[in-house]
Design a protein that fits this description.
Chain lengths: ~450, ~450
Amino acid sequence: MGCQPHHLLPLFGCFCLVFFSRCVSTMVGTSPLLSVQPTRGLVDEKIQVVVRNLPPAFSVTLHSLHHSEDKDLWEAFGQYTSDGQGTVTVAKDASLGGTYEGAEPMGLLWSMQPVPGSRTGLRLRKMDVLTPLVVHISVYSGHMTEGFSKQSPLATVVTERWYMAPGVCRIDIEEHGVRGTLFLPPGPGPFPGVLDMWGGGGGLVEYRSCLLASHGFVSMALEYLSHDKNRISDIDSKTYFEKAFRIVQEHPLVMKDRVALFGLSFGTSVALNLAAYSKDISPRCCVCISGSHVLPVNKSISEVFKKINEDRYKTRFDEEGCVVWRDIILPIPTDLGEKVDMGRIKCPLMLVVGEDDQNWATVESAKDMAQMMRAAGNEHLLTVLQYPDAGHLIEPPYTPHFRASNFIVQKTRQKVIMLWGGYTKPHADAQEDCWEKSLGFLRQHLYPSHDSVPKAKL
Amino acid sequence: MQILMTEKAATPLLLLHPSRGLIDEKFSLMVQNLSQIQEITLHALIHSDDGDYWEAFGHYVSDATGLVNVANDSSLGGTYDGVKPMGLLWSMRPVPGSRIGLRLRKKEVHTPMLVHISVYRGHMSQGFKEQVALASVVTERWYMSPGVRRVDITEGGITGTLFLPPGPGPFPALLDLWGGGGGLVEYRSALLSSHGFVSLALEYMTPRTSGGSTSHVGNEYFEAAFTVLKQHPQVCGDRIAILGLSFGTSVALGMAVYSTVIQPRCLVCVSGSHVQPVKGSLSDVFSEINKNVHNTRYDEENRVIWRDLLLPIPTDPTKKVDVGQLKCPVLMIVGEDDQNWPATESAEDMKQMMEKAGNSHLLTTLSYPGAGHLIEPPYSPHIRASNFMVAGTRQKFVVLWGGETAPHGYAQEDSWKKTLSFLEEHLYRSTERWHHRSYSHDGEIIFLGLSFS
């Protein structure tokens, strides 16, 4: 054991600079080796973060930093102690504190939050899918909780997180009044297709479709609630969505009998309505996240929103003034004109709900949907994934959770802070599990194995 | 009564991970949704920066679940056979009809190599272009990881490219020397930087014209390059190594022993030799080689074999670097089928010299049967011969490098892994006992020993 004259530190340090002026990291020996693999990954791919060459039993903090498209800074961090070999392996070692705790391989990504001093109500979303999310991962000496920007880390690596796999093709769609973005996987096809619909926030959100294409599905992200107030009147009936579905279905690279619907929030309501009532289109299967079958049946979007407005008096506010909309569709109506007749669903359906959803009464809806299908005899088509303590926005995995965020109400253009619900760790787990199961579900129904039995209809 | 037709043939799913990797990273590759016991061909295609097409392919049969997994399944034929997870990359060769004597080298390191991986029905060996694949994906292979910075270097009279890892540093560094082909070859340095080293790719082979005469650079050129690294604010000046291939090995060994300026922490010497005039310069090495030019041989395809130009290994001590004086660890990497330099014989002779001198504990030799001269970072194609132009002379040859594809592929993979380990061990991990003097207030010398045990 060499001498460790800590009290001589300042004196030692001074001479150290004179004689070994280059290696300022002398107090931790040589530089630690930080590795992140892969350095370029898809957003849903896991990363392995390992720090080696530390002294044994050494305190460090692993830190991630992302500079968003909106120019905000997001960060996460976990405190670790190196083992006897001077190594920290994030996949198996426990974080002792920080924005996440315990052995969390992906904690540095999903537990990110805006840095102190940021604007409030932020939501992290990648709008340009042609470029990656760039995350700087660093290791700092000691157990830190703040001041990362003022300290020099021991080492840093840069990792890219992509929604778009190489070879995926992005195409703007503006056809017969339908607006969206189509993503094509690489290869000769043909491929199954997906019509991908987000919720009441509106606009054209591409990243989930892009990621689906990276997994072998032709996917169209559909714009149906434009941020342009005047356009909402264009979306007057089921026809818009049927046209959109057919654009996917009729694409030369798409297998016509293998097109699915994928919806979140209001997108789920659209999907269920179409699946039950459309005479024109027939989805092969549906993935419906954080949504409900409760809506005026077979009516236009404007009429649906009108009904929602009528019930808006049921809005509550939490102790911080965030808007809670979950009661708006409660109680679940018994009147069949007010909810989709689930007995009419003919295709496999996966419902995903977060038990702490504060935005829409999705748990109650899922329960009611299951009852309706049981009564109608088509419950065998239904799979329900229900996640304790997860919120409303169950998105592709490893992106940050936010319990509330800024939201612009479609009709009134009012700016509020919307409570989505959920707690960070269970919500992250829900996103990871849901995405894996959604991909599995889509593959099972859209990419069947070769020796499927021919179906006879008598 | 209505009977629905059998469902259309399912599209197979090609699953490759990671879709974007470093050039030395392995990938996993599976094909799902095939029929049971179905014959397929996996095919890889690169369209190089030079405009040529390179391809590789393997013949597989799916299992009872319609799955092929290259990690476990055997290729039954093609450009590689057996269980070879990375065979689709290292067994690549120019497509039929290509120009001859090609070598696949990435000049532009800011962009990746794009590899198209496809699955075809049946066991095919040609005509891939005319056939529609069942499925296809694209994977990117990068020499540079994100955050690595590339800097042109012209200071100190040298020409090179510096690559810096992301982060504050300081980092250990490498002087990266290629061989007789000359030019400024950046990709190995870019890759080393992606592994945490500052790396300087040095151009040194092109003869310089100065004062009307043309000559090779002198030893002070390499000393200047080493100094550029040593003085760089993000480099640990006492943790600099030299990595040399072919002629680069000659420089590395010569400088490590005879230069007072260059004190490398360790050396990696690939496919090279210690045979050169003692304390000589690069010009001297060339002269010595030229004396033996009559030893040039040709193979049955008229390709140049230069390995005999330095044989027999001299016994005269003035004709080879006195490796008994080496003070740092050396990793020697040789291919036993090297047709260009007598690397195996040189390594053997070096071992004997070092054993006699008592410093052989510094030497580690990796010797690969069936490997040729150009032992490069892994998963790049092996070429047994290629077009070659000696730097500065414009003379063109087709040079025989040697090696057979499969053992050469293995040598590249294994030696690179061991090279990175070796560099990490000596440049990152080695905790020397540093004793330095510091003066107390009354002038008494205090020795402070520093160690991390």
